[in-house]
Amino acid sequence: MADVAIRSNVKQPSVSFWSRLQANRNWLGFWFMLPAAGFLILFLAYPLGLGVWLSFTDAKIGRSGIFIGLENYEWLWDDNVFWTSVFNTLLYTIVASVVKFAVGLYLALLLNENIPFKALLRAIVLVPFIVPTVLSAIAFWWIYDPQFSIVSWSLKHLGLIHENIDFLGTSWHARWSTIFANIWRGIPFVAITLLAGLQTVSPSLYEAATIDGASRWQIFRHVTFPLLTPIIAVVMTFSVLFTFTDFQLIWVLTRGGPVNATHLMATLSYQRAIIGGQLGEGAAIATAMIPFLLAAILFSWFGLQRRKWQQGESND
Amino acid sequence: MTETAVPAKRAALADHSEGMAYLESLPRRLVTLYLPLGIILLVLLFPFYWMALTAIKPDDQLLDLERVSPFWTWTPTLKHITKLLFETQYPRWLWNTMFVAVGATFISVVASVLAAYAIVRLRFKGASYTGGLIFLAYLVPPSILFIPLSTVVFKYGLFDTPYALILTYPTILIPFSTWLLMGYFKTIPFELEECALIDGASRWQILTKIVLPLAIPGLISAFIFCFTLCWNEFIYALTFLSSTPNKTVPVAIINEFVDGDIYRWGSLMAGALVGSLPLVILYAFFVEHYVSAMTGAVKE
Q1: Are the Cβ atoms of A184 and B43 closer than 8 angstroms?
Q2: What is the pLDDT of residues A154-192, one digit of tens each?
Q3: In the Cβ-directed half-sphere of B66, how many Cα atoms lie within 13 Å?
Q4: What are A102-144's pLDDT values in tens digits?
Q5: CA–CA separation, B149 vs B164, rounded Å?
Q6: pLDDT interval class at A269 (50, 70, 90)
Q7: pLDDT (mean) for B55-83
């Protein structure tokens, strides 16, 4: 009797191919990823390859180019303005990043202390980062005006200088002015991110160090800084990246500056390609940025990575 | 036995950060903490004060620095702002910028939600590589891509329309918001989804009914950050838009208020001020989300 019951045809619920496919994670994954992948391939990967290709042609606005090999690069190699822009970009990036890091870290340490209205101060500090760069650049444009600058007026009234400072009209003045504007804008990002990192450091470590008699500098150097290096690596990678490829600030303040003194590679590329119409040459300048970028990213990423000894294990 | 009471200068031990506060005295804190902090805050905020002040100063006081102190004005005027709003195309530019920002943000957040869910939860074959690739996509700067993108935009006939921007901004926004949302989705316990799966829910239902409602803070942060990035974008807007009515605020403002070499500073500053207002208001309401977006993504 029992075996009849067992052998009776129990109808297996049939799972159709379609419904099994719908639960397959690879199938679903493909469809879920499609919008994002579509945008990124169409408007990022393809243009990136196209840009490198364009740098090997003599394309101009309005007509597509023919392949000319390395001619664009040879032309740029002999071009003084190009090398000036490379120098400007490196100077701008290195000085601005170092100062942003130093002042940002200092500000983060200050904000980490026990002060009243900490949340409000933190919110206020972030405002230069929120306001669109172009709009704050316009404010700086006004502050740097050769005749009506408030800075010149204040310094004259304090008796420190005798005539107005020409902020944006002389080469080196323009360089330092734009670097200062970039630092002004970048400090909040570095400071707030490092502040978040500082807040993850357990206070018991500080207390232990104080009990052992460490001075404040020693605490910073041996406790705080090593624990911060992973976050510093990430923040500085982004900061260097965005400073190196900065366009807005320079374009609004000086359009490339008195006699190309503040031209960065990005602004020079725009000027040659869109205003001058030489798409191939502009693309070559833009492609020339890539090796520097890769070097900076690799340096920050690998040089400042978390080391095993920081976690209490032995070095590898 | 009497005990000499040691004057306890200890601050209240409400949280552990005050544990060593007894080592600091007020005068010392004033010099090493409050003074540098005050100076830095002053430098950070002064340009905005100057911008706002110039926007409401009457014209004659703007250029004459000798008669009155430039740091204050006793006769503020709204003339610059009304001129801006009623006599120029500024409202049109504001509308353009809002339209582009909302459109691009919406598209990006939708695409990122799907992509982040797929990478974190579906874990299809090659998911970690895709995640790494998306992170690398964030490192490709717009200043390198704008030239080939301009040819692509031209070829598709999108030149000088806001759709050129709505379709190209997601390339900047999607990597960041995917990264951000991946972090948020990872904090949602998998057990909830397991229960739903056992109960027979499809992945789509799990996403919309369980994961998304729990990830609303993350969605708000992603939305706000993307919105801010759209307003801040300049080089694509400069390259892809050419006719004046179609421009966005950042592009229009640097061209339209300069007659030859006469800079109309009052209107310029008013334009800059009004242009900053939407973002600052949004920021004021959602500060915590903004900060958590910035730091959460960086801390991975």
Answers
A1: yes
A2: 888 888 877 788 888 888 889 999 999 999 999 999 999
A3: 1
A4: 999 999 998 988 888 888 888 889 889 889 999 999 889 888 8
A5: 10
A6: very high
A7: 78
Domains detected in chain B: 84-299 (1.10.3720.10)
| Inter-chain CB proximity A44 and B140 less than 8 Å | yes
Picking from A138, A183, A217 by the largest number of B CB atoms within 10 A of its own CB, the best residue to mutate is A138
Statement: residue B131 has pLDDT above 60: yes
CA proximity to A186, closest of A241, A129, A260? A129
* CATH of the domain spanning A72-311: 1.10.3720.10
Q: Identify which of B34, B144, B299 has the shortest CB distance to residue A196.
A: B299
CA distance A213 to A74: 62
Cβ contact B170:B226 at 8 Å: no
Residue B300 has pLDDT above 70, yes or no: no
Domain locations along chain A = 15-54, 72-311
Do A54 and B137 count as a contact with CB atoms less than 8 A apart? no
- From the list B164, B166, B156, the residue with the least C-alpha distance to B110 is B166
Integer Cα distance of B261 and B161 in angstroms: 29
Angle, CA of B181, B183 and B187, to the nearest 5°: 110
Quote ipTM for the complex: 0.84
A253: nearest CA partner in chain B: B254
Model confidence pLDDT, tens digit, residues B146-205: 999 988 888 888 888 889 899 999 999 999 899 889 888 888 888 888 888 888 888 888
Instruction: Give B-chain residues touching A106 at CB under 8 angstroms.
Output: 36
The total of other beta-carbon atoms located within 10 Å of residue B61's CB is: 21
State the smallest CA–CA distance between residue B1 and chain A in angstroms.
30
A234, A245, A269 ranked by CB distance to B298: nearest: A234
pLDDT band at B45 (very low <50, low <70, confident <90, very high): very high
